[in-house]
């Protein structure tokens, strides 16, 4: 998305419903949003989604909001690495489809398309 301010709570929750083990939203530095308050709106939505994930026992720790400037490649890499390590430690999402948890893949035939 061109601005994290466009991220909706439904986008975040849908990612988990679709099988994501973790989601990270990365926006520009706070106070430096081209859309004035887009990243602040995104942070509020992420925090609300984290509460929903905690309430539904998926776990808010599976969702994170990061902020980096375009020139901060190393900071971006570090944030993504930390999030990946956290999600790996948490294991598969409890709402991940059973097929995805076991690594099973579904073969498709012409009739399935």
Short description:
This protein has four helices and two strands; from the N terminus they run H-E-H-E-H-H.
Note down, in words, how this protein is organized.
With 113 residues, the protein is mainly α. The chain has one domain (4-105). The protein is built from 4 helices and 2 strands; from the N terminus they run H-E-H-E-H-H. It has helices spanning 9-17, 38-55, 73-90, 98-102, and strands at residues 23-27, 63-67. It has a two-stranded parallel sheet with strand order 1-2. The longest helix has 18 residues, at 38-55. The chain starts with 8 loop residues before the first helix and ends in an 11-residue tail after the last helix. Residues 104-113 have low confidence and may be disordered.
Labels describing this entry:
113 residues; mainly alpha; two-stranded parallel ribbon; 4 helices; 2 strands; 44% helix; globular; disordered C terminus
What's the Cα radius of gyration?
16 Å
Q: Provide the helix percentage.
A: 40-55%
Return the structural class.
Answer: mainly alpha
Biggest sheet statistics:
2 strands, parallel
Query: Which outline best applies?
Result: globular
Q: Count of DSSP helices?
A: 4
Instruction: Please tell me the total number of domains.
Output: 1
User: Strands of the biggest beta sheet: in what spatial order?
Assistant: 1-2
Low confidence ranges:
104-113
The amount of beta strand, in percent, is 5-15%
The chain-level mean pLDDT equals: 86
Q: Using DSSP, what is the number of strands?
A: 2
Q: Spell out the helices and strands N to C.
A: HEHEHH
How far is the first residue's CA from the last residue's CA? 29 Å
